[in-house]
Amino acid sequence: MLQEINFDGIVGPSHNYGGLSLGNLASAKNANHTSYPRAAALQGLEKMRHNLRLGLPQGILLPHPRPDLAWLESLGASMESAAPIPAWAMSASPMWTANAATVSPAPDTRDGKCHLSVANLVTMPHRSHEWPNTLKQLRLAFAGPGFAVHGPVPAPFGDEGAANHMRLAPSHGEAGVEIFVYGRSGGAFPARQHRMACEAVAAHHGLDPERTLFVEQAEEAIAAGAFHNDVVAVADGLTLFAHEQAFADRASFYAQLERLLPEVRIVEVPAARVSLADAIASYLFNAQLVTLPSGEQALIAPSEAHAVPAVRDYLEELVAGNGPIRATHFVDVRQSMANGGGPACLRLRVVADPAEVDPRFMVDENKLDRLAQVIGATWPETIDSAHLADPALHEQIAAARAALLEALALQGEDL
Description:
Elements: E1 3-9, H1 25-29, H2 37-53, E2 58-61, H3 69-74, H4 85-90, E3 101-104, E4 114-118, H5 125-128, H6 131-141, E5 147-150, E6 165-168, E7 177-182, E8 185-186, E9 189-190, H7 195-204, E10 212-216, H8 219-223, E11 233-236, E12 239-243, H9 250-260, E13 265-269, H10 276-282, E14 288-291, E15 297-302, H11 303-307, H12 309-320, E16 325-331, H13 334-337, E17 347-352, H14 365-378, H15 391-407
Parallel strand pairs: 1-2, 4-5, 7-10, 12-13, 15-16
Antiparallel strand pairs: 1-17, 3-4, 6-7, 8-9, 11-12, 14-15
């Protein structure tokens, strides 16, 4: 049976605040602060545990080897090179698996397979070297005949994965409308998703052109710090939850959507109620919008959303009303949030039969308990950005990752 599985990234043992992501206001604000990798990873596991208890299937993707010495060598650089090169090589950004790939479920594709295209992430140096390791994981986790895993769109067409992709459908087993959101610019901040990349992914996935939309993100949203669409909009089932200023031409987009899906429910948050600045600071839209086993929809939001008065008040009215979103759950992912990634950044949605996924990439509460023990025993407690070149830290990070792979019975795989 097709179900929506959230594949969360386990926060890696090299989690640090390098301030590397131009246009990501939280990342810039916390640059060079002391990070807490162990706490970050445990917070991520608790979010997964919370979602499991809501009855939602849960998978994982893994931290990458760090530092990435082969990539450094290709630059003619080393961990002794001038900043920010060491931070580029030590980035734990693969934790944000919303950027791992774009996923089209089987009901939408020409060949009836679930297609995944790994994102190239070429816009930012610290992320540009992620895709080869991510591709290895995807090809292992989704090796079954019901999946097709594609390599990246070539540079220079930036592709940042599911963070700029939404799907609306009456149910997981029915054909839906796939929405690719691209950008142009945002003042001093670059647009990271190129329209050509969106079109290439849609072609590789064999999507029906009549049910595929390419929508431009508003320049004002990018300029305000919405470096991905999922900072200002999220979709699930037949519900689109978006800020009034998310899209360049929202009237045209909504009209197309209502033509293709007359039953769509558009929940638009007025700028007069929640400013773009408050939406981005709270990561209101970087929440997981999910359909629970009961059929009701819920928003799994960061605790920061409850701390911003305008956002808190809006959410209280939202769930008290007669709209499709009936509950809000707040989760603590503060270590991730401080580096610019909320609950939605930490997960990649894959609509598939869980039985067809490599079981080593699926989790239950017992497996989360084992992973928590490994992380508690091996992850660094803190990392100071001034010490990223410390060989002892590199040894600890490598040993921690090796212990994780062993706990998952993945130690013999080329990952």
